[in-house]
Design a protein that fits this description.
This protein is of the alpha/beta class. Helix content is about 40%, strand content about 20%. It binds 3-methyl-2-oxobutanoic acid and zinc ion.
């Protein structure tokens, strides 16, 4: 008989700690609803003590989500645990996840606490959390560099205090699969009371082994994996949910485990997270990358046509990708559009939102003969959806570049409803466009990242641009999509400026310097 593997998603907490991935309360609620639809067991909705905004978002998610446990992170101190307990109080099922570092390097330099003090704080935090919920998780931060005997001591103490889940994090992405699996196995063997709890793993991807380490821990006995959509997270990210889930499903012969995940929701969830956070998915990313199911070499194409399993170990349909990718065109009506939007699992809040997206679809279909699923998804991107109400709005652009000449760009955009025409020059057309916008806006922002992705295949494809800007300690990501990549760049730049300009509270635990 197979056992259950608990999927704990921390996109809204650890994922949000990626630069510029900070979200508003409404964005977090939107993602939480999609995670519920995906079937994750636990949604780590945030870190309640980090900011009033994060507290409010966790509470709102706890009020909204019914079929997943809603969890808040808390350091092992009274204020954090009480805030976490209060934030999850409306949840049908709520969890407090408390943590303290257990490695010599963290205890000495960060906490300035000795081993006895760490054990005492951990036990106190678990007992206090139990006043709010019976579902308490304890994490030993930097378990990877902690001494085994001390880990055993801490875990025995928190299990005796009533913790129900014990999480073993590779906080710095330092482990390798054989060692991590063995560490999990030894802990389960040595800790008294280990059979009373669920063992969990939480791996970061600094050496590119987060998924492999997580799966090794599962083979060593872990029955909860902490992960994020698209592997979003601090530095190189966390273990990617879609890779873990599809590995366990595809290699059921090895793992003999089930998850509650509806894998056909994977693609929609990946797109939603990428759109809201402004983090594009690399084309060769496992499972959800644009190339994950495309076969370029003739030998592979031939093999797949003759018998799909020759080169495919997963079916595109299993992750919610349609095999018939050309969906709509210029003559498609509102009903066909609505149906495809629903099939893609794109959450649409109102008829007005659908109508506005349909108008953008018609506009795009005038310029592009075949509209693919990815194009439809881009119509619902941040930049596209907020266009009407934003401070800066793209209107039009003309641009000239010629070999040997410095490119020139003329951008027309609105600033608070007032039309502005601005010109600039640069190294290339995108540089000239950014200079043209800046000649008027003078934002003083620093450009940290500029990336262009083709949304679909072929030169007719729309380009999806991400621009990451930093100003006054805030980092934001703007995105834009258009068949003309210079226009997409202008839209992305203005979208990032809108985020910098916006007074809407973005929730970012990282900015508060707490975790
Ligand atoms: O990476 C880590 O150690 C964490 C803990 C707070 C679980 O995110
Ligand atoms: Zn982490």
């Amino acid at each position: 008989m197979s056992e259950q593997l608990i999927i704990f998603d921390t996109t809204l907490r650890d994922g949000e700690q990626s630069p510029g991935a900070s979200m508003t309360k409404e964005e977090k609620i939107r993602i939480a609803k999609q995670l519920e639809k995906l079937g994750v067991d636990v949604i780590e909705a945030g870190f309640a003590a980090a900011s009033p905004g994060d507290f409010a978002a966790i509470k709102a998610i706890a009020e909204t989500v019914k079929n997943s446990t809603v969890c808040s992170l808390a350091r092992a101190n009274e204020n954090d645990v009480r805030k976490a307990g209060e934030a999850i109080s409306p949840a049908a099922r709520g969890r407090v996840h408390t943590f303290i570092a257990t490695s010599p390097i963290h205890m000495k330099n960060k906490l300035r606490m000795n081993e006895d003090q760490v054990v005492e704080a951990a036990v106190k935090a678990v007992k206090l959390a139990l006043e709010y919920t019976a579902d308490v998780e304890f994490s030993a931060e930097d378990a990877v560099r902690s001494e085994m005997d001390f880990l055993v001591r801490v875990f025995e103490a928190v299990i005796a205090a009533g913790a129900k889940t014990i999480n073993v994090p590779d906080t710095v992405g330092y482990s390798i699969p054989a060692l991590w699996g063995e560490r999990m196995r030894q802990l389960i063997e040595r800790v008294s009371g280990s059979n009373k709890v669920i063992w969990s793993t939480h791996c970061h991807n600094d050496l590119g082994m987060a998924v492999a380490n997580s799966l090794a821990a599962v083979m060593g006995g872990a029955r909860q994996v902490e992960c994020t959509i698209n592997g979003l997270g601090e530095r190189a990210g966390n273990a990617s949910l879609e890779e873990i889930v599809m590995a366990v499903k595809t290699r059921r012969d090895v793992f003999n485990l089930d998850t509650r995940i509806d894998t056909t929701q994977i693609m929609a969830t990946s797109k939603l997270v990428s759109t809201i956070t402004g983090y594009p998915v690399q084309p060769n990313k496992a499972v959800v990358g644009a190339n994950a199911f495309s076969h370029e070499s003739g030998i592979h194409q031939d093999g797949v046509l003759k018998h799909r399993e020759t080169y495919e170990i997963m079916r595109a349909e299993d992750i919610g990708l349609s095999t018939n990718k050309i969906v709509l065109g210029k003559l498609s009506g509102r009903n066909a559009f609505r149906q495809r939007v629903q099939e893609l699992g794109i959450p649409v809040e109102s008829e007005t939102e659908l109508n506005a997206a349909f108008a953008r679809f018609k506009d795009l279909a005038d310029r592009k003969s075949e509209i693919f699923d990815e194009d439809i998804q881009a119509l619902f991107s941040d930049e596209a959806m907020t266009h009407e109400k934003e401070f800066y709005q793209f209107i039009s652009l003309s641009q000239a570049s010629e070999t040997g000449e410095r490119p020139h760009s003329r951008v027309v955009f609105a600033e608070d409803g007032k039309e502005i025409v601005s010109e600039g020059q640069g190294n290339g057309p995108v540089d000239a466009t950014v200079h043209a916008i800046e000649a008027q806006v003078n934002s003083g922002a620093e450009l940290l990242l500029f990336s262009v992705n083709a949304i679909t295949t072929g030169t007719e494809s729309q380009g999806e641009v991400t621009m990451r800007l930093s100003k006054g300690g805030r980092i934001v990501n703007g995105t834009g999509a258009d068949p003309d990549i210079v226009v997409a760049s202008a839209k992305a730049y203005l979208s990032a400026l809108n985020k910098l300009h916006s007074k809407v509270e973005k929730i970012n635990p990282q900015a508060s310097g707490t975790v």
